[in-house]
Amino acid sequence: MAADIIRVLGGLAAAAAVALAAPALAADPARHQNYSWVDKNGERHYGDAVPPEYAQSERRVLNNQGVEVQRVDAEKNAQQLAEQRKRDQATLERAQHDHFLLTTYTSTKDIERLRDERLDQLDGQIKATVAYIDSLDARLKTLQARALMFKPYNSKPDARRMPDDLAEQLVRTSNEVRSQHRSMDRRKQEQTAVRAQFETDIARYRELTANPAQG
């Protein structure tokens, strides 16, 4: 506790020294400010003015004893600003998700239970889709067998042209089979994503509950 107080007092003293230095500089014109900056080659320079080409770069303001009294960060370009906003958004979303985990679950068992429910639900949907595809395949085979009786699949001279309704059913059923296969693939991908997300949540929840101060 005493060490913490000493650190706080030390910080306050340093802040006070900086605060007092600024008015002193303004009151005494002879004690002008100096600057420190880094050039494009990474070399640090000192002087009473920053060259125009480095005016937007990170620089430090020094008093006449060479003590840093202010630091000016480099101005960021559009790409850097966008990247910073992206990082800030990711940090915010992570904090929000951490809050969600801590306020929603009381243990990892809760997360595992919800995970299993979600996976079972998706598994049921996949099984239902597989059964539907099987029925579509059976219907498609029946339609294809009927189609063999007609042109162009039947080469006999007296073979009739395929009825429009049969051709339409063939096309519709084939399209539905493809659509259901895509749907099943999406369900499987979702199942994999859900499993990975819950495993990540479980690991993060353990981190947060093992060290509540972690953010």
Report the span from N to C terminus: 23 Å
C-alpha Rg (nearest Å): 36 Å
The percent of residues in helical segments reads 55-70%
Strand order in the sheet with the most strands: 2-1-3-4
Bin the strand percentage: 5-15%
Total number of helical segments?
A: 4
What ranges have pLDDT less than 50 throughout 5 or more consecutive residues? 1-30
Mean pLDDT score: 81
Provide the succession of SSEs: HEEEEHHH
Name the overall outline.
elongated
Number of domains: 2
Strand tally? 4
Global structural class: alpha+beta
* Largest β-sheet summary: 4 strands, antiparallel
List the helices and strands and how they pair.
Elements: H1 2-27, E1 34-38, E2 44-47, E3 59-62, E4 68-72, H2 78-104, H3 108-147, H4 164-210
Antiparallel strand pairs: 1-2, 1-3, 3-4
Main attributes of the structure:
4-stranded antiparallel beta sheet; 215 residues; disordered N terminus; 4 strands; elongated; alpha+beta
What does this structure look like?
It is elongated and about 110 Å long. It has 215 residues and is of the alpha+beta class. It has a four-stranded antiparallel β-sheet, with helices on one face. 1% of the residues are buried. It has four helices and four strands. It folds into two domains: 71 residues, no CATH class; 105 residues.
Summarize the structure.
It contains four helices and four strands; from the N terminus they run H-E-E-E-E-H-H-H.
